[in-house]
Amino acid sequence: MNTHLAMQTVTSWVKKAQIIGTDVNGQPVSRAEFNAMQKEVARLKEENKILKIATVLLGEHRK
């Protein structure tokens, strides 16, 4: 087995599991959880933008 590859894998796992803060309830948040939350926020912002545009277009259509 390639020891270098295994070391990189373990290092990656450790970084992802590293606690970087706490949530509003004081629960620990890992780097992986934080990254997932950032992606979710970006997705929700994009969906919100699309819904706002759709609302305007539908409002204009009803006139």
Could you characterize the architecture of this molecule?
- By secondary structure, this protein is mostly helical.
- The protein contains two helices and two strands; from the N terminus they run αββα.
- The protein has helices at residues 3-17, 31-61; strands spanning 19-22, 28-30.
- It has a two-stranded antiparallel ribbon with strand order 1-2.
- β1 and β2 (28-30) form a beta hairpin.
- The longest helix has 31 residues, at 31-61.
- The chain starts with a helix and ends with a helix.
- The model has no long low-confidence stretch (mean pLDDT 90).
Short description:
The protein is 73% helix and 11% strand. The protein has 63 residues and is mainly α. The protein has a two-stranded antiparallel sheet with strand order 1-2.
Helices and strands in order, then pairings?
Blueprint: H1 3-17, E1 19-22, E2 28-30, H2 31-61
Antiparallel strand pairs: 1-2
The largest sheet has its strands arranged as 1-2
Q: Could you report the average pLDDT, rounded to the nearest whole number? A: 90
What is the N-to-C succession of helices and strands? HEEH
Helix content: over 70%
Tell me what portion of residues adopts beta-strand conformation.
5-15%
> With helices defined by DSSP (H or I, 4 residues minimum), what is the helix count?
2
- Which regions are unreliable across 5 or more consecutive residues at pLDDT < 50? none
**Main pleated sheet:** 2 strands, antiparallel
Radius of gyration: 20 Å
Secondary structural class:
mainly alpha
Assembly context of the chains: single chain
Tally of DSSP β-strands: 2
Q: What is the overall shape? A: elongated
Terminal-residue CA separation: 69 Å
